[in-house]
Amino acid sequence: MAELTHLDEHGAARMVDVSGKSETHRTAVAEGRIRMSSEALEALTQGDLPKGDAFAASRIAGIMAAKRTGELIPLCHPLGLESVTIDFAVEDDGIRVEASASLTGRTGVEMEVMTAASIALLTLYDMGKAIDKGMVIDSVRLLSKTGGKSGDWRARP
User: Fold this and answer.
1) Can you say which residues are annotated as belonging to the binding site for substrate?
2) CB-CB contact of 7 with 13 (8 Å)
3) Alpha-carbon distances, residue 98 vs 3, 15, 90, 109, 148 (angstroms)
4) Its annotated pathway (predicted)?
């Protein structure tokens, strides 16, 4: 199998050829946070936003983003995801979003869950910006991945 690199023999960017890799079950989980005023948090959690149900819109946006990561991130492979979930946890000063995805394939889903979490957070911002334009999105990171040649990985707490 050829070396897995995004550079061809002339140093030009290319999509990695994964045709020689074995298909394995692969999963990944990512998280991110959006911090906001207590007024915005209350409106968001009570469903009192002028634009409607922020959690429903954010969940759909995150899932759609995961499915389209290959179109959004240069050199990412388009993947046939088997599952994508977006979950929310209300915290004292905001919302934590957790995105997970899985498939059986030749490449992992880390970029898909990172994209899903980011877009879900941006959607929460969009839904609540009329109340708090100063919301802060931060801490988007990969929490875990399984499968593939590199095996399993977990972030440190």
Assistant:
1) 75-77, 111-112
2) yes
3) 33, 28, 12, 14, 22
4) Cofactor biosynthesis; molybdopterin biosynthesis
What architecture is the 24-154 domain classified under in CATH? 2-Layer Sandwich (3.30)
Tokens 């995961």 -> residue: 66
Give the active site residues. Answer: 126
Phi and psi at residue 44, to the nearest 5°? -65, -50
3-state helix, strand, coil in the chain (%, to 5): 30, 30, 40
Residue 91 has which token pair?
Answer: 């915290």
Q: What confidence tens digit (pLDDT) does each residue in 21-54 have?
A: 778 899 999 999 999 999 999 999 999 888 899 9
- State the pLDDT at residue 2: 47
Contact present, 110 and 103 (Cβ < 8 Å): no
Domain ranges, ordered by start, for the chain? 24-154
